[in-house]
Amino acid sequence: MTGGRFRLALTGGTAVLAMLTAGLAGCSVGGVGKLASGGSSEPVTITPANGTAQVKPDGTIEVKAGGGKLQNVTVKGEGATVTGKFGDDRKVWRSDRTMTPGTAYTVTAQARDGGETRTATSSFTTLKAERTLKIADVTPNVKGEKVGVGMPIIVTFDGPVTDRAAVERALRVTPEKPVEGAWRWVGQDKAIYRTKTYWEPHQTVRLHARLAGVNAGGGAYGAEDAQATLTIGAEQITKGDIRKHHMTVTRDGKKLRTVPFSAGNGQTREYTTTSGVHLLMEKGNPVTMTAPGRKPGDSGYYKTVVDYAVRFSNSGEYAHSAPWSVGSQGSANVSHGCLNLSPENARWYYDIMQRGDVIELTGTDRQVEWDNGWGFWQMPFGKWREGSALR
Q1: Which of 28, 47, 216, 237 counts the most CB atoms within 10 A of its CB?
Q2: Is residue 386 part of a domain?
Q3: Catalytic residues (predicted)?
C-alpha cells in the first residue's frame, strides 16, 4: 500500500532546550551549583544527579533553585529534544516529555539570587531498552503527492504495541484548518486516524510522533521521534448511481464531468458492485485482473489486462477502461463488479485521480464493509472513536 505526500522523517539530532536566555556564567559542581562569587550558598539541584546511569527514558528531569529564581535551563543530548516548564514562581523546572533510550544527556541550569548567578550541571545516561518501538511506515508517504479530502493517516509500527494509550498520546495531528478526528487501532501494530468530516481542501496536515522514550509496554520504549507531512489537494468527489449507470465528478463543488459506466451484473454477490462511501486507493496502468479464488480451468475463471485502473476497494473493484463494453455503458450492468468506462473517460478519470478522493455509490444491496480497503467512512464517527485507546 503506497501513500500520499506524506514524507516520513525520523529525527534524532542534538536535543537543546533554552527556556530563557540569560547568557550568564558561573561555576558548576556535579549537579549542585554554588555561588559564582559571594552571596547565598543555597544550591541549585538537578535530578537525575550527575553521573547517574540507567535513568528510565520516561522519567522526569527536575531542577530546583534553593534561593532566587531559575533563569535558564538547557538539556543537550544526541536524542529527542527535551522540553519542560517552569513552576512555583520559577523556583522549579520539570521536563514535560520523554528521553531517547541509551543516550547521554547534560542539563545546565542557572539561577539568579539578588545580584549573583549560580550555575549547576548534571550529566547522566538513560536506560538502553531491551526492545524498542519505531514507526515503520506512515501512509500516505509519497513525496510530492496531493491526496483527497477523505484520506486517512495510517501508522504502522515495527512491532506490537502493548500500551496503546501511551503510544497514542505521543501522536499528534495538526491540520492548518482544524477538524475533529480520532485514532482507531486495527491491529497490534497499526493505528488509523480519521476525521469526523472530510478534510478542508488545499491545506497541509502534519503528524508529530513524540515517540522517543515512551513506555510502550512489554519492556519496549519508543526509539525515536518521527514526523510526516500530508498535502490535501482539491475536494474531488464522485457520486454514482449503479441503477442509472452514471457518475458525476465534482472538484471543489463544481461539476467536471458526468461519466456513463457499466457496473457489476449482480448475478452473484461477488459480481455485485458495492454501495457506500469508498476512497480511491491507488491506480495502475496496466493492471492484470484475475478471478479471485479461481485457477485456470475453474468455472468463472478469467484473466484480463486493463488500462487506466483506479482501485476503490480490496474486493477487486476498480474504475477502468473497458472498450469491450462501451455499448452497455450508461444503459446496463455487465461487469464482474468493476466500473467499466470508455477508454477516453477512463484515461481522464485516471489522470485527475488523487488517492483519498471520495467515491459514493448507491443502488445495490451490497454495502462496502468499513474494513474493505479504505471503507472507513462507512463507520459512524462515534463508533470509530471507540477504537481509540484514549476513549
Answers
A1: 216
A2: no
A3: 320 (proton donor/acceptor), 338 (nucleophile)
Q: Which of 94, 125, 156 is the last residue of a domain?
A: 125
- Please tell me whether residues 177 and 223 are part of one structural domain: yes
Mention every residue, 6+ apart, whose C-beta is less than 8 A from residue 279: 148, 150, 151, 152, 312, 355, 356, 357, 358, 359, 373, 374, 375, 376, 377
Given the residues 245, 278, 336, 338, the one annotated as active site: 338
In a domain, 6, yes or no: no
- 166 and 70 in a common domain: no
Q: Based on the residue annotation, tell me whether 338 is a catalytic residue of this protein.
A: yes
Q: How far apart are CA 307 and CA 279, in angstroms?
A: 20
The rounded distance, in Å, linking the Cα atoms of 190 and 161 is 9
Q: Are residues 334 and 352 in the same domain?
A: yes
Identify the band that residue 43 occupies on the pLDDT scale cut at 50, 70 and 90: confident
What CATH number has the domain bearing residue 49?
2.60.40.3780
Residue 182's domain is classified under what CATH number? 2.60.40.3710
95 near 85, Cβ under 8 Å?
no
Residue 385 lies in a domain: no
**Cα 286 off chain centre by:** 30
Contact (Cβ atoms closer than 8 angstroms) between residue 278 and residue 368 = yes
pLDDT tens for each residue of 322-340: 999 999 999 999 999 999 9
pLDDT at 27 over 60: no
In tens, the pLDDT along 64-117 reads 998 899 999 999 999 899 999 999 999 999 999 999 999 999 999 999 988 889
Catalytic residue among 245, 278, 320, 336: 320
| Model pTM score | 0.86
